[in-house]
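Structural biology now treats backbone shape like a language. To illustrate, our science desk offers a sequence and the tokens encoding its fold:
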Amino acid sequence: MDTFISALQALGQGFAALTWQSGVMILVGCVLLYLAIAKKIEPLLLVPIGFGIILGNLPLANLSAHDEGGVINLLYNGGILTQIFPVLLFLGLGAMIDFGPLLGNPTVLIFGAAGQFGIFLTLMLALVLGFSREHAVSIATIGAMDGPTAIFVATKFARELLPAISIAAYSYMSLVPIIQPPIMRALTTKKERATLMPYGEKKVSRRVKILFPIVTGIITTLIAPMGAPLMGMLMFGNLMRESGVISRLVDVSQNTLANLVTLFLGLSIGASMLGGDFLTRNTLAVFGLGAVAICLDTVTGVLLGKVMRVISRGKINPLLGAAGTSAFPMSARVVQREGQKANPRSFLLYHAIGANTGGQIGSVMAASVMLAIMSSVG
């Protein structure tokens, strides 16, 4: 009887150990699941992250990323802290990306550069607010709208902020369809958004497509070697795709590998978002600065688009500037949708994909430059 009574008492220990902070985070996880399932907002990211948050904040379950010996802790230590997950994800991403639109219209690469301005502006703001150089660099990388890059930098310089930075990066990347459109509409007129651009894919030779990842990988690594693990895997994945001789490896990289890493990475990140550690002033400041970085990326990109429209005498739709981030392919889809709202005959996806892939390269280069600066200063 005593054993039976003890067992019944143990059933309620989880409720007794539940704190208000954990309760808030469980609610946050449920909100992310609602956005993913009901609203279909980036479910591949938000479902594992949202459920990971719930699992990690259930007391006594040993399912948080910081519970030594737990299954999610093993994934977190072995995949995120070692940077294996971000690197493997870039390999899969490279196998998915078609750089044809960028190579067919290299002019859009300038939008990929403009889409990184928010990183450096946020870096200065974080320094002004009193964050250390290491923390400021890591926080600013959220503006890349690139979860793997943000994780890669944070594991080097701000491991204590890694949960907040990774969650902010992936959450904001998933919420691009909500964040970007109001900014795009506020900075442009309907006439500007309705600008028609010629549609039709420009043919790029197979030789150029094969040489691009090789040449780009060499040049970018020589310029900024600190980003070689990410850029190298991105370009290797793309070379596999364009070579046309290892279709089985490409299929594994695009599907099995990318999906598996996304699943484990999202679950691990979510389970690292603990209420007791997360609901602090510094963490909330990380989220605030991350939002500022992403908004500034969009603002600078659209403003450059307006300048390019003037220079081209009305031939360039300024919405393309919003696709200069590395939120691939979410930003390109947003540009396409907003362009068609203003003009149903508008088809910007081809051009937006080019800018978006340029932003992917730009984000890694921006992070590499900051890593190089930090290493030289250190």
